[in-house]
Amino acid sequence: MAPNLVTLVGFAWPLVNFLLFIIYAPTLTEISSSPLGELFDHGCDAINASVTTLVVTALLRLGPTDPSALFMLTISCIMFFTATLEEYHTHTLALGVINGPTEGILIMIALAFSAAAFSTDIWLMPANEVFGTSFAILDGVLLNQLVVFAELPIALSTVFTNLSACVRKPKHGTVSAATLAANLFPCLYLFALAWAWFFFSPGRILASAPWITLTSIGLLSAYLVGRLITAHLLLMDFPVVHTALALPTLAVANSALAHFGLLPAPPVDELTAAYALLAASVILYTHFAHDVISGFTTHLGINVLSIPYPPKTK
């Protein structure tokens, strides 16, 4: 694609958004939201959190053999999950001083422009050389690694803020540490499996097939967020055990059994298992989205992608 075509395609989306609002909100006062809209928005954002993070890791040329790619995906998805968990308990979506929808997007744009100006080779240069400094703490640290390290304090601050709000400002009753731990367990278990897959895969499958494996983990994380926001909207309990997590458990066990010598080799070829996990994750998320959206549209009597015009008055 020519660069100008890329620019034109990007411009088309805000233009379409503008035209849709002219049609469906001609007086700027029409209702254009519903519980389904909240679910739809969070569901898309949950997937976007994963795919955008993977794009950034590719932009920074982190490489799958380095744990930085999985680290970036882990902190991005956990931050999104805890933000949704805060909304689940407080019924308020509160964005911090530094957050993904604003500062996160601006940082990503800045990284992209930097790569465009200096080529992506800049991320593989020593940080001291790029900044013209000689800080001992940065000796041997590449610029892309410094970007990853900078994510950690932001992530920890965000997660702490989200979890403390669950305890301090719950909408219904008190929230104990045990309850928070139970809420966090599915997400933490998923990423514990991801890290186990990274370390215990005999064929280093996360390095040889990073897009397949990391996309699967991202989709499963988005599924958990979808379940959480659905529980919030329907005032339901968020389950501790999710049968969907049996999928990555089997994939990781397939690799880990051989790593620890319990089997001479993975029972299923690791690449085949990775593709199977990706296919199962896509089917799972698609089925979940269709099931929940159908339920909301039927109950609320609304459409998914169109707004019925109000009856004309004579």
Description:
It is a single chain. This protein has 314 residues and is an all-alpha fold. It has one domain (33-300). 69% of the residues lie in helices and 0% in strands. It is built from eleven helices and no strands. The chain has helices at 3-24, 35-59, 68-90, 100-118, 127-131, 143-168, 177-200, 205-208, 210-233, 246-259, 270-300. The longest helix is centred in the C-terminal third of the chain and has 31 residues, at 270-300. The termini are far apart.
What topology does this entry show?
Blueprint lengths: L2 H22 L10 H25 L8 H23 L9 H19 L8 H5 L11 H26 L8 H24 L4 H4 L1 H24 L12 H14 L10 H31 L14
Helix pairs in contact: 2-3, 2-9, 2-11, 3-6, 3-7, 3-9, 7-9, 7-10, 9-11, 10-11
Summarize the structure.
By secondary structure, this protein is mainly α. The chain contains eleven helices and no strands.
